[in-house]
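The methods section describes the discrete structure representation at length, but only in general terms. An entry of this sort, consisting of the sequence and the corresponding backbone structure tokens, reads as follows.
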Amino acid sequence: MAQILAPSTQWQMRISKSSPNATPITSNMWSSLLWKQNKKVSPTSSAKFRVLAIKSDNSTINRLEGLLNLDITPFTDKIIAEYIWIGGTGIDVRSKSRTISKPVEDPSELPKWNYDGSSTGQAPGDDSEVILYPQAIFKDPFRGGNNILVICDSYTPQGEPIPTNKRHRAAEIFSNPKVQAEVPWYGIEQEYTLLQTNVKWPLGWPVGGYPGPQGPYYCSAGADKSFGRDISDAHYKACLYAGINISGTNGEVMPGQWEYQVGPSVGIEAGDHIWASRYILERITEQAGVVLSLDPKPIEGDWNGAGCHTNYSTKSMREDGGFEVIKKAILNLSLRHKDHISAYGEGNERRLTGKHETASINTFSWGVANRGCSIRVGRDTEKNGKGKSSTIMARPLYSGSR
């Protein structure tokens, strides 16, 4: 099982294995490094003892953790804001840090910023400046304190949304009074795969080989069935700390694969929360030395893919007679199936095959409690004639959801 790698809370002395003369550091050797002060010796500092740090090519002392965990709030009002945006592929997240003079509570209090769009595939080199507009704020689980994560979208210097800025149009739709009156709820189920760093093979799989067939791994426990639980749990807590409306998590059908759910959220908030959660997951897997993959079908063959299923409902669907409203919405979706498929992201033709609990990418279908349909309606919705949600196979909220 992968573990989150963090520096020890104590200083560490590491001896290179390649050195033939290296010997373990014993307690006696450490005590010889501590020079206790006594009354006969004039103190050179207010400390009770001094540590003599050995410097050599074969040893290092790790002091990073103390600095990374440094609480700066007693010493300054300044905070660190991590500006986050979606890159040119529509699925990659980028970020950079900025010092802000004091804590903020609303994105409108933050300044706009810029980045080099030619380095993210979003602008030509001869006119590369792209402007970041802060849109949503979350607490920073990595830096703590008053530091924040800031979800941004991207514009030209003239104030026009760049082509990959899908959030701008989504925000326009959600701000429409008719849409607001329907109070659209979203619940997003993000599946992902954890890969070993050097070989890009799923976590827990033998290198170049395969585990046993699918079956024992879904929602499982045990070292031979569950791989990466610490990453999933770390992500869960980090999202709750950040203020993301994460509602659950579970191990998925393919070993090394996990899922978490964000929502129910209203309107554009759902998109901001899912993108912030993806960024946090990228940072946690970075620290763990594991590669995060949102690829729809990371392993070919008799293995489940990874989707981003979206549960959706409106006020009319949740009221009496709502099942008829749901069926009308399903009909409207069926008439634009190809348009929607083109917006779901690249690679879904490898996942939506009609096998492994998916519908065929070429055929629209719906059913009650049928996991092999494009849209699945819950049993309770059918029974009650209304419902809180219906599940769409891969509906993106804004930009390139998988």
Remarks:
- Residues 1-61 have pLDDT under 50 and may be disordered.
- The CA atoms of residues 337 and 358 lie 15 Å apart.
- The chain is about 25% helix and 25% strand.
- Residues 1-70 form one domain.
